[in-house]
């Protein structure tokens, strides 16, 4: 279950259920979430539906940032995102990536933010991330270990493990050294590098196989002439002869 976490103040996490969750400013100046907006200043709304989790900004005077990037009207957010609304930090926490999770479907790792933004890595093999050129995915932060994290798909699961010497990293906003990943999980690395596990969609074939040409059946029965075909041709021939005779008579015996 997704929930909102306030990291810089002692407050209980706010669970996100289907529907709207308002974020308001109390008369005391404190920013609250999941309470009635009656009599308070509405700052933003979280909307959870079948498409995912959306963040809607209520008006232009509200300063909203998602993972350090400004949002003017609306943004789609996911577990592990860090949001700031008018100076209040709110983290979206997702499920705890425990060892009982099973992916079940092919997946890929897609970069959102940082120097890996836009890149994708198919999770059909092992991937090792680190600052060394020997790593499969080279991280620009040279303060990280040469071999930092290993992601290993095996037997229906996608295992993430921080290698010896590495610090815990955030998966769905929760610090861990080892995790079993599912599509939708987000990994946060230093320098704002974010990696999201996505389900791989099978590509539709661009060209469909053409059907084999049908062979026309050859009839062995003798052909039968169409009834009345010769009769019709005779009438046409007689009509043409009569028309020609009429034109000839008109030319020979007509008025001069």
TrEMBL record:
**What keywords appear on the UniProt entry?**
Membrane, Transmembrane, Transmembrane helix
Q: What is this protein called?
A: FHA domain-containing protein
Q: Which Gene3D superfamilies match?
A: 2.60.200.20
Q: Which organism is it from?
A: Stenotrophomonas koreensis
Q: Which residues form the signal peptide?
A: none
Highest rank taxon of the organism: Bacteria
Which InterPro entries does this one have? SMAD_FHA_dom_sf (IPR008984), YscD_cytoplasmic_dom (IPR032030)
Lineage at the top is: Bacteria, Pseudomonadati, Pseudomonadota, Gammaproteobacteria, Lysobacterales
Query: Ranges for the YscD cytoplasmic domain?
Result: 114-188
Membrane-spanning regions, if any?
Answer: 235-253
């Amino acid at each position: 279950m997704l929930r909102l976490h306030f990291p810089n103040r002692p407050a209980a996490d706010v669970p996100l259920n289907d529907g709207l969750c308002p974020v308001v400013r109390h008369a005391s100046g404190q920013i609250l979430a999941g309470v009635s907006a009656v009599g308070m200043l509405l700052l933003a709304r979280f909307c959870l539906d079948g498409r995912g989790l959306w963040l809607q900004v209520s008006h232009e005077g509200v300063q909203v940032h998602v993972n350090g990037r400004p949002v003017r009207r609306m943004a789609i957010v996911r577990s592990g995102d860090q949001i700031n609304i008018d100076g209040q930090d709110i983290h979206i926490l997702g499920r705890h990536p425990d060892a009982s999770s099973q992916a079940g479907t092919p997946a890929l790792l897609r970069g959102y933010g940082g120097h890996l933004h836009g890149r994708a890595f198919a999770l059909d093999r092992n991937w090792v991330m680190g600052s060394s050129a020997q790593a499969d995915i080279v991280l620009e932060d040279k303060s990280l270990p040469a071999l930092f994290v290993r992601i290993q798909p095996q037997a229906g699961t996608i295992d993430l493990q921080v290698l010896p010497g590495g610090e815990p990293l955030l998966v769905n906003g929760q610090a861990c050294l080892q995790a079993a990943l599912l599509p939708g999980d987000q990994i946060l690395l230093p320098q704002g590098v974010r990696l999201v596990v996505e389900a791989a969609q099978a590509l539709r074939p661009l060209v469909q196989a053409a059907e084999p040409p049908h062979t026309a059946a050859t009839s062995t029965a003798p052909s039968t002439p169409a009834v009345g075909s010769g009769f019709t041709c005779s009438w046409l021939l007689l009509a043409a002869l009569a028309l020609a005779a009429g034109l000839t008579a008109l030319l020979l015996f007509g008025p001069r």
